[in-house]
Amino acid sequence: MPRTTEGDGTPVPQRLLAAATRLFADQGYDRTSVQEIVEAAGVTKGALYHYFGSKEDLLHEVYARMLRLQQERLDAFAQADEPVEKRLRDAAADVVVTTIDNLDDAMIFFRSMHHLGPEKHQQVRAERRRYHERFRALIEEGQKQGVFSTATPADLVVDYHFGSVHHLSTWYRPDGPLSPQEVADHLADLLLRALRP
């Protein structure tokens, strides 16, 4: 996307995404109009349609940007020159921290994914599947090495961990007793305990 800026110097696409994210999280995707988004971003409808073809494109990008970040980070952990146990723990903790850091995005996705058309819905599912498969490959690597128990299938272990991650937006509060890193450490430790031989 071009780095065109208006007003405060923030690139227009980022301003639109920030406004859409805030509005989708506060009042829901279906109750947010394009006019509200452009007013909140301080741009015109023409600017929105220059960067995004539709409100649905904005919804797709809200989730896609978080998944791109998480995929890049998972790939880096998976490729690190570290024991598989450390790589898995780092990846398991990271997905918790990055989800909490982008809690509105996560909440919007789980609340509004059904608003995506079939093509975008399929793209998102494929992107999520790629992430989960890379995560599962770490578990399987550890199971083959005998570092992790094979008593529970790797697929079920993945579902167990991501079930916890997907529910963060329903209960985590920034002003609560645990920091994002503390929550991440607890959930990563639970995962590793479940995998001990």
What proportion of the residues is helical, as a percent range?
A: over 70%
User: What is the subunit organization of this protein?
Assistant: single chain
Run of helices and strands: HHHHHHHHHH
Number of strands: 0
Main beta sheet, described?
Answer: none
Envelope shape: elongated
Mean pLDDT equals 91
Rg, alpha carbons: 19 Å
End-to-end distance, in Å? 48 Å
Estimated structural class? mainly alpha
Report the uncertain regions: 1-6
How many individual helices? 10
Strand fraction: under 5%
DNA-binding region: 33-52
Domain HTH tetR-type: 10-70
Pfam family, one: TetR_C_24
Protein name: TetR/AcrR family transcriptional regulator
Question: Which helices and strands appear, and what pairs or packs with what?
Answer:
Elements: H1 12-27, H2 34-41, H3 45-51, H4 55-79, H5 84-101, H6 103-112, H7 118-145, H8 154-166, H9 168-171, H10 180-195
InterPro entries: DNA-bd_HTH_TetR-type_CS, Homeodomain-like_sf, HTH-type_TetR-like_transc_reg, HTH_TetR, KstR2_TetR_C, Tet_transcr_reg_TetR-rel_C_sf
Keywords: DNA-binding, Repressor, Transcription, Transcription regulation
Domain HTH tetR-type: 10-70
